[in-house]
Amino acid sequence: MKLQEAYLEAKQQKMVGLSLMIEFLVVEKKVLSFDDDSEKLQHYFKPNNKKRMNQLLNDYRRKQF
């Protein structure tokens, strides 16, 4: 599944965290693209990345609203 499909599905299912993460990585950081396979997200779900990713997403969310 492409990230664009995963993003749209997350938005539709009101999966705020997942949609925010995809948006952050694609739009803000530009480390992934909507054409990438959703498997590339697995790197960002690793336990050693969790604390930093949560902080980045919280900062990104505050910046948006």
Radius of gyration: 11 Å
Report the average pLDDT across residues. 95
Number of helices, counting only DSSP H or I runs of 4 residues or more: 3
Total strands: the figure is 0
Oligomer: single chain
What overall geometry do the principal axes of the alpha carbons give? globular
Tell me the strand percentage band: under 5%
Descriptive report:
Helices cover 63% and strands 0% of the residues. By secondary structure, the chain is mainly alpha-helical. It has helices at residues 3-12, 16-28, 47-64. The longest helix is centred in the C-terminal third of the chain and has 18 residues, at 47-64. It is globular and about 25 Å long. The chain contains three helices and no strands.
Summarize the structure.
With 65 residues, this protein is an all-alpha fold. The chain has 3 helices and no strands.
Layout of helices and strands:
Blueprint: H1 3-12, H2 16-28, H3 47-64
Helix pairs in contact: 1-2, 2-3
Features:
65 residues
